[in-house]
Specification:
105 residues; DUF1825; single chain; globular; DUF1825 domain-containing protein
Length: 105
């Protein structure tokens, strides 16, 4: 069975994408959130990022050809911006840390 044929992989990918899209839409109103709302938003973004890291690690550890190709495609796409997957995660964390530092401003 291919990595992408797994119902677990398909379900997690779907949930991860839907949750991320919902947070991005919600984030368009971030400036209107009160302090607690901003904290909740940042915490939810961190949770999504953690889920995404775990999901990507599954790809990296899989011996499935399609999973390995997905990892290579991501590396190639990020490489066009001079970035590695780890740098992408680091940059996302920096952004969230900056948002945390500005909550009371």
């Amino acid at each position: 069975m291919s990595f992408f044929d797994s119902e677990i992989v398909q379900e997690e990918a779907k949930n991860l994408f839907q949750d991320y899209q919902s947070l991005i839409q919600l984030g368009s109103s971030y400036g209107k959130f009160d302090r607690e709302g901003k904290i909740m938003y940042i915490e939810q973004m961190e949770a999504i990022m953690d889920r995404y890291k775990v999901f990507m690690k599954r790809f990296e550890l899989s011996e499935d050809f399609s999973a390995q190709m997905t990892v290579e495609q991501l590396k190639t796409q990020l490489g066009q911006f001079g970035m590695t997957p780890q740098q992408m995660f680091d940059q996302m964390q920096q952004t969230l840390n900056r948002m945390k530092s500005q909550i009371d401003k």
